[in-house]
Every structure is written in structure tokens, then in C-alpha cells.
Amino acid sequence: MASSVFEQPPSSTSFFSNNSISKTQRLLHTNFSPTPKTGRTILLLQCSTSKTSSIVCAAAIDPPPPPDQNRLPSTDADVALEVASATRDRRKIVRVAWEKLVRWSRSLRSRAKTDVLERTNKVVVLGGGSFGTAMASHVAGRKEQMEVNMLVRDPQICQSINENHCNRKYFPNHKLPQNVIATMDAKAAFTGADFCLHAVPVQFSCSFLEGVAEYVEPGLPFISLSKGLELNTLRMMSQIIPQTLKNSRQPYVALSGPSFALELMNKLPTAMVVASKDKKLAKAVQQLLASKNLRISTTSDVTGVEIAGALKNVLAIAAGIVEGLDLGNNSMAALVAQGCSEIRWLSTKMGAKSTTISGLSGTGDIMLTCFVSLSRNRTVGVRLGSGETLDDILSSMNQVAEGVSTAGAVIALAQKYNVKMPVLTAVAKIIDNELTPQKAVLELMNLPQVEEV
């Protein structure tokens, strides 16, 4: 049992009696008692047993020193000096951090291999659309001696590229490099090709590939630029290409990220992701495409990159509808955040990594497609929200909005993997003309409140 020295001890003997205080106790009491000189406080405890009672020193605590009475109050000049000193320190930290980053970047660039670009002599691009044209221009600009063949089906596009060095349908004011050549001859396009960039819309990819399959070498790497899901089969491009070519070992890479074709043509900086199960192939494509205007990262998560690339188009239609209905910024942010969660739920159920959805090919591409007016899918949504019919919208467009076809496939996938996706499901019902945009908003707002996952 222990008690403070300031309490009455249980023994009838006086607390400071010589009979009850041992030599050690006297020493403690004598040497460590508080004195006015030091202001030092000693906490003494009395420990009692059936035979003896002893006092121990538990702790010695010094009170904080009194304030310096001679110190002058701080002036404005003192405060200014302290602020200036803190600013110099902060700037030094930032400068050192930036210098380290620059040295690291230079070190990586000095070790970067260029042998893939050096030995690449020919690249074939399938499709004459806006993004295929932009990537053909980008690749051709990487090496003047490289031949870039665009395999197209429109004779007018073919003629304008070869005679005027521009794609007059999509980029009439942009000159293409001299080493970009258009052709309608599949055999000529594929002969001697080192890489193939696939830029045909997903819903037409199977029929296009069936028509050129006999000219495709089994070891030719395919770089898919197409985003979406095949409506009836729910297949991704990583499944469509090898199955249509009847070659399960056809080298395959998915390229995705925030990248509008117009900004690529204008050589504005952006970043994209190369996804492949073959790390060596991913690095090779990185060497081929990376430039001062295009930063390329690599990943092995093909499923995550492709699912995010497909579903972001459907979400962009939803974002456009919010804009068309003039529901405000709060609604827009809430809807896109909910849509991102739905994409993550489904993709992870399908085996994708959640980090992929928060990266360039996920959140990066989603933000670009949902918030920028250049987005075809967002434009479809805006016009739907403004009261136009889907038929009128699609008939007036000269480019494909993949989200329109993909919406139904997304819902089928959600049912297959037992994932609730209210926002994307609402888009599918609007596209099928089973729900008006206004009614969809009311239904979504009346959904039960659930805990965020």
C-alpha cells in the first residue's frame, strides 16, 4: 500500500520519529526535501507492510523556468526576419528536392535504351480516324526514316493523306509527316511491319481483322488504341484480337490514358500507360512511343486498363447529361465520384488492381473524358440532357462515341459479376429509351443511403 507523505501514516508513531525512520529514510528526507532555493519538488511515497513502513522517492520534477524578465518584446522587424529566414529554409528544401529529381531523371534517361526505335523500320496503323491519325503522326515524328502505313477504307481519306499530307475529314489544318502513307491494300500495309497500331472502333474490329488476318504475321505486336467492350460477346480488345486472328500467342499491348487526338496533333504534353503481360514487350513499346511530348508508363494490369478505358466512356455520357440538365457543379462532382467507385468495384471483381483505376488510365482518362468539351461521349450526354434524341445526335456525328455501344455491355458484365452500378445502369436505360434523363436523376437521388466502400 502506498500513500502520499502529506497523509497521516497508519502507525501511531510520529511520522518523523527517529524510531520509525531508518537511516536511508533520513537520508531521503534530509537530502531531497524541497527547498526554497531550487524550487525542486520531491514526491515521496510511504510503503507500508505489516512490519515496517518506508518512504521512497518516486520522481523529481522541475517546474518550467520562469520567463526571462529581461527579454525585450518582439518587434515587427524581428518577426520579419524570422519569416524571411523560414522562407529561405523552405526555398532551399524545395530547390534541393527539385535538383535531386532532375538528377534522377537524367540518370534514367542516360540509361534508357533506344535500340527498339533504331531497328523499327515500318509501323502499320489500322484505321483512318482521328486518334489513329494522331498516333500515326506521332510515331512518324519519332524517326524520319521510319515508314508509317495507314490502312484505311475511305478512298477520300487515302487520297488526301497521300496527295495533301493531311486527313481532311478529321484534321484538315494539320500537316502529317512525309513518312506517313495511306493505303487500302492490306497486304502492302502489313508487309515488313514491325508493329501494328489498332485504331478501329471496338464494334467493327472483329470484321476488320477478319478481312486482314491472312496478312498478319504471328509474331507482329498489336498495340490497341481502341476502348470499349464488344456488345454481344462482352469481349475486350485483348480477347478480340487474338481470337479473331486465331492466334492465342499474338503479342498484345493496350495503350490508354488522358489523350485527345487534337492535342496529340498539336504536340501538347500528355502521359499514357502501356499494359501488357509481357514486360519485355511493354518496355519495347515504351521505347517506340515515348517522346518529349508523350510520357509512357508500363503496367501488367491489362484488364484494369481496358475496363477503365471502356467504362469511362459510359460515365462521360452521364457527366454530359448532368451538364445538359444544368444540375450544377455539386451534382457533377458527386456523380463522377460515384461512377469512379462503380468502375473500381467491377474492375477489381474482374481481377484488376485498384491502383490502376486511380492512375492515368483510370482517373486520368475519366477526368479528361467527363469534364472537357472535346469528349465525344460527353457531348452525346450534353445533347441528351438538353432534350435531343439519340438518333438525331448520332446521325449528326462523324465520329464514333464508344460509350453508346458499351453501356449495354457494361450492365451485362455487372450482372455477371454481381456488382451494383446505379449510375452506369441509368445511362444504359437512357440510351435504350427506357428512362428519361430527368427521371433517371430522380431515381438515383431516391436510392437508399449506403456505406461507402
Query: What characterizes the major β-sheet?
Result: 8 strands, mixed
The CATH homologous superfamily of the largest domain is named NAD(P)-binding Rossmann-like Domain
Number of strands: 11
Report, as a whole number of angstroms, the end-to-end distance.
Answer: 53 Å
Strand content bin: 5-15%
Coarse morphology: globular
Mean pLDDT: 85
Protein name: Glycerol-3-phosphate dehydrogenase [NAD(+)]
Enzyme class: oxidoreductase
InterPro entries: 6-PGluconate_DH-like_C_sf, 6PGD_dom2, G3P_DH_NAD-dep, G3P_DH_NAD-dep_C, G3P_DH_NAD-dep_N, NAD(P)-bd_dom_sf
Subcellular location: Plastid, Chloroplast
Provide a descriptive summary of the structure in words.
- The protein is of the alpha/beta class.
- The protein has three domains: 2-61, no CATH class; 117-300, NAD(P)-binding Rossmann-like Domain (Rossmann fold, 3-Layer(aba) Sandwich), CATH 3.40.50.720; 305-445, Orthogonal Bundle (N-(1-d-carboxylethyl)-l-norvaline Dehydrogenase, domain 2), CATH 1.10.1040.
- 49% of the residues lie in helices and 13% in strands.
- It contains 19 helices and eleven strands.
- An eight-stranded mixed beta sheet has the order 6-5-4-7-8-9-10-11, sandwiched between helices. It has a three-stranded antiparallel beta sheet with strand order 1-2-3, with no helix packed on it.
- The longest helix is centred in the N-terminal third of the chain and has 36 residues, at 76-111.
- The two termini are 53 Å apart.
- Its EC number is 1.1.1.8.
Put the structure in a nutshell:
This protein has 453 residues and is an alpha/beta fold. Helix content is 49%, strand content 13%.
